[in-house]
């Protein structure tokens, strides 16, 4: 079911999920949009068998006046031919690609837990008379249900699990960025304090300087001395935020 080319036909898993919702919608208009989107995917590369056959069955059912009243319904013979061909491609694409080449198609279908019902319809459509239209309608509905349960939903479940597994990594990246910003702030504050200490005093103090002015300069010198303990406290806080390298 998952065999396909390395280039994915959908642009993102969000698009894949959106097409799944369209194909399984109760609205005929939404199902039509999903079928058209799969037609676009077919032009890009080879599709997984499950995606291709699901869209094919739904497109046929959209043209079946019994399941979806339309202005220009297909004849019964046309519907029988289309349904039968879709069942043949389903069995050939899923069962006939099994690696056990020495086994019969029926044995391979049983090994993959696919109903014998589809193998019998394939045999009748290929070598005998076409099955009746009610039987083919039932086969199409059963096939779509099995493809949704065995391909679409497990695939979407894996995508959700993969996204949940990336969440802790995202938290670590955010913590690292926060740590980087705090470190830059620490470096900037340390550089500012160092530049204050390193400023040379070009002018000599005059003996007759006012005492109030001298006291103000002493207070400014004391504020610079306070910045060093504040920088040390910030460095200790940042050391506790550093992520564990072993993780």
Structural description of this entry:
This protein has about 250 residues and is mainly alpha-helical. Helix content is about 70%, strand content about 0%. It contains nine helices and no strands. It has helices at about 15-25, 30-40, 50-60, 75-95, 105-110, 115-125, 135-165, 165-195, 210-240. The chain is elongated and about 115 Å long. Residues about 1-5 have low confidence and may be disordered.
Number of helices: 9
Low-pLDDT parts are 1-5
Cα separation of the termini? 36 Å
Overall number of strands: 0
Q: Let me know the largest β-sheet.
A: none
Give helix and strand order, one letter per element, not per position. HHHHHHHHH
Describe what is shown at a glance.
The chain is mainly alpha-helical and 247 residues long. The chain has nine helices and no strands.
Summary keywords:
about 250 residues, 9 helices
Q: What's the SSE blueprint?
A:
Elements: H1 13-23, H2 28-42, H3 49-62, H4 76-94, H5 105-111, H6 116-127, H7 133-165, H8 167-197, H9 211-241
Helix pairs in contact: 1-2, 2-3, 3-4, 3-7, 4-6, 4-7, 8-9
